[in-house]
Design a protein that fits this description.
Elements lengths: L1 H49 L3 H14 L5 H13 L8 H14 L6 H94 L2
Amino acid sequence: MGQERSRKGKHFLFRIACCVGICLGLCGCVHSYNQWRGAQGLGEAKALMSTGHYSASEKRALRVLEAYPGTLGDEALFLMGLIYANPKNPTADCEKSKAFFEKVVTQYPESLRAEEAALWSLILARSLANEKETSELQKKVRALEQTSEARGKKLKQLQEELEGKQKEIVEHREEVSQLQGRVSELETQLAKFKNIDLTIEQKKRATAP
């Protein structure tokens, strides 16, 4: 009796072990299937990006991130970083790209993508700093150009005023010259009149008794 119970117990444990093994096997298969589906989704996202369908690529990568954050989240985030870093993308945005790469580094520090993402983040940070500096320089150049233009207009205005004054001076000099000529004529006539008066006076004296 004892041996029979022992055999039944062993069979029962064996069945349980088989059930557990089957469950683990099924779980492993489901996990592998999910992993395959996630990888397939990433592959589709990469293909969409390579053909210029950036918006569709981002949406596909986002689905993978939401469905498999623990296993494929780093790859999905890294891909979205590449999408926004691509200069051919009409909606390229260095700030967004940098944010995705930083999430890879902070949320998945053990990922094989972490080091590469950190490098991308550093490059983009430098690029943003250069863009900001360039923008500031362009503003200064425009301000100087506006100042130079305003000064040029003011200088032109002053030159025109100077030319007008010089013209007035020439006209005044001509008027003065004409007046001087008229004065000389009047002085000559006056001298003639004096001579005539003097002659008449002398004749009166000569004929006087």
